[in-house]
Every structure is written in structure tokens, then in C-alpha cells.
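User: For my dataset I need records formatted as: sequence, then C-alpha cells, nothing else. Please produce one.
Assistant:
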Amino acid sequence: MRCGARGAPCGGVVLGGSERGVKVARLGSLGVLVVLGLGCRERLREAARAARDRVHSMTAPEGASTQAETQAEVSAAEPEGRHTRPDTGPPIVAPPPVTTDRGPNLGGCAIFPPDNAWNREVTALAVSPRSAATIANIQAHGDPHLHADFGDNPEWGLPFVVVPPTQGAVPVRYDEYGDESDPGPFPIPLDAPIEFGNDHHVLVLQQGTCRLFELYHARRERNGWVAGSGATFDLSSNRTRHEEWTSCDQAGLPILPGLVRFDEVSAGVIRHAIRVTFEHTQGAWIAPATHPGTDDNDPDAPPMGLRLRMRADYDTRRIYGQARVIVEAMKRYGLLVADTGGNWYLSGATDRRWNNDDLDQLKNIPGTAFEVVDTGPLRRRRR
């Protein structure tokens, strides 16, 4: 049986609709959400009574009644605007199911082997003995809450492009960190998207070869590119950069594997750590990073390559939508410190399909919801 102007099932749930004359009533202690479409009230009132009677017969002695059940019937029968309930906040939302599928994939390429640091789960790792001091240091040096550094604005986030195996290679010239960069040519199209802002990253994944090519401070030059630095990564290997080398990130890490991508979130699961930046970082690193942060004199500042995990006791039950998928990934895979930048800034791919209202929920999560996990020893430059 169908009712309502757009054929919504009577008693069903309308997602994303704004049909005039539709309202939502909660049937008291039954915990059932009902959509009231035009012409549905009488049938829903009968359904509410029937549901009430079924539960009542199982839970209460004969003749008993409850205030919640009475209110359920009134809510289903009364016109909109009367007997309204106080706002109790967003409903509790069940987490996405945990899958055992293979690791992240893009363009037909696995994004590193399953045992790569980006793809390892952190749920069982021990908390670092320096966790409390590091979190306190982070909170004292910038915004203490999370921020999604991406959204529906095409100028936000980091764009990337996937190219075929036949993409022609073009010259690349370096003018800042050439001694720590991989020599060209790179198969980067001359019309590849360039990140807005100051860093001007260019990220290219080549199919077939499954190699990643990244540039920093990139700009086009005739038939090629000029960049501050450049790096290429074999996505089938766990090989890292040379010790003490940077990449297009301060940490010497690749950028693309740590981005929150719309295709992952829309599928309901992120299977890798998320790239994060902090305003104040330590002049040291933890593998798989290969290059230090900025401050050699602060042992409590986060080093490059530091792994953080959302605490298991932090309540995320009312977080929904795209933000909920990100939250579940932060519990399972955590955050990986990759650069000095905005405090608690999570990196994501540029995409107009992001829902800013969903993502803004992350701004309510404090840094104290995280803990540092132990993934290996601290390393410093050889003197």
C-alpha cells in the first residue's frame, strides 16, 4: 500500500526528502520512526495502535497502559505542530559493518600491500608512554578540535588524476629540493589539476604500472613541469624514501594513500590511515616516515610518522553520514602525521559531492579523543 504525494510507503522512511506535509513522529518506547505523508494519518494511527497492542501484550499485564504508548497514539494522530516533542539531539546511529575485504584500491591498483604501514590496523597496538604529553602539546599549539580540510568547494582538498599506462612522460625540473627528489620525466598530463593554496601539489596515479607520481610547488613550464620537489612510489612495494629525504610531504611519505576519498566513504568504509597535520612538530620521525618535523628542542611535539588512534571509550554513536565513516576509520586505522600545517587537519580529496554539514560534525571532536600508539623508535638526523 502506498500513500503520499511521491508514493512513499505508508510508515516508511523518506531519506533526503523535503515533501511538504511530511513529518516524523517517534512512537514512544517502541523506538519506531514513522513518516506521516498526506492522507496517511488515519492508517498510521491504526498501525500505531496495533504495534502498541503487540508490544503491550508481550510486556505488560492485561489492562495495563503506559504514558509512552498513549503519547505514541497521540503523536500519530495529531496535526503537525501540536504535542511536539523536545529535541533530544541526533539519534544514535549504528556503525558501518566491519569488512574483511582487501585493502584500498584505486584505478585497478592496490594502494600498497596489505601489511604496509598505511593499511595496518591499530586497534590492538599499545598506547605510547608519551601519549598524554604529546596530546597535551598538540592541544596547546593550535585549534584543539578536528577539521576536515576538504569539502564540496572545488578549491578545498587535494585533487588527483588517474592516467592510463600509455600516458606520455614529460620533463620535470626542480628548483628547491632537487637533491632529495626523484628525477623525471613523469607521466603527468599538462592539464593535471593543481592544488589550490600555497603547496600546489600535483598527484598522479598511473594505471598498469601502478606507480604514484607527486609534485610540490608545481607549475607548468612549456612542455613539462617545474616543482619544488617530486617523488614517485611503487604501490606494489613497501619500500620507503631514503633516510632523511623528504618527498612532497615533509615526512617523506606519499600523499594520495592518506587522503579521505569520496568513493571510499560512499562505499561505507575507509581501509587505511588518514593523513593529518599539526602546527607544531618535532625534529624527528618514526618509520615509515623518513624526514623530520621542525622543532629539534621539544620532545613532546608530534614527530613525523606518529600514529594516533581514536580512543575506544569516546562516544561516537550520534555521529552520522560521511563523518561516521571517517570516525570508524580513525578508530580502526588511525591518523598518520605527514606534515606541519593546520592543527588536527584531516586531508581529503577534492570532490563536489562532499556533504559539508556531515563533515562539520568532526569540528566537535576534541584532540583529547585520541591517544598516541607505539609503532616504533624515534629517529633523528645523523650529526
